[in-house]
Design goal:
about 220 residues, alpha/beta, Rossmann fold, 2 domains, 4-stranded parallel β-sheet, 9 helices, about 15% strand, Hydantoin_racemase-like, Asp/Glu/hydantoin_racemase
Length: about 220
Amino acid sequence: MLINPNTSTATTAMMTAIARRTLGQALPVRGVTVARGPLMLTDPAALRAAAPEVLAAGLRAAAEGDCAALLVGAFGDPGLDALRAATGLPVAGLGEAALLEAAAGGRPFGVATTTPLLADAIAERVAALGLAARYTGIRLTAGAPERLSADPVLLLDRLERAVRACVERDGARAVVIGGGPLGEAAEALRARCAVEVVAPIPAACRALTRLPATD
């Protein structure tokens, strides 16, 4: 089950489609949208508010007994640790999986995203994962996240500029696209940028396939 921590059902559908393409027939994916919260998670308060909603959705899935694994569909990984502790199921989060993948082999990596108010939270997550020495920093798009999300062409252009800044100014050799709602843009950027672009939803799906299954 892919749990979308924001209340946009369109975002849930988009992320679920990407997860299904990544996992194929091996692991069918069902998308679920949390019951309450903002349409986008753009600041630390929104991340904190989303965590209990994510936990509640995961607990319902575990109780139903037809869920083999959980994927937290936000880059800030709200509720991730609580889900692992409470459900016993394999659980992956977009942020954790993408950051670890980007840093594999000791590569210097950066993050390109649309949410300036989450820059400190992202840096803290990088440090908590023990990756601070490889982190070249964050590059942010110009413009409000809500406006960019409503204009896919502009979003892609601004994110591509941020990716190039990570490489050309900061020395990154891999760049994470920091956001679940940026999933389609992340897929498109993989073909447009010479550097390795780490798309968070496929990264989390790959992480799930490496986790041991539960009985």
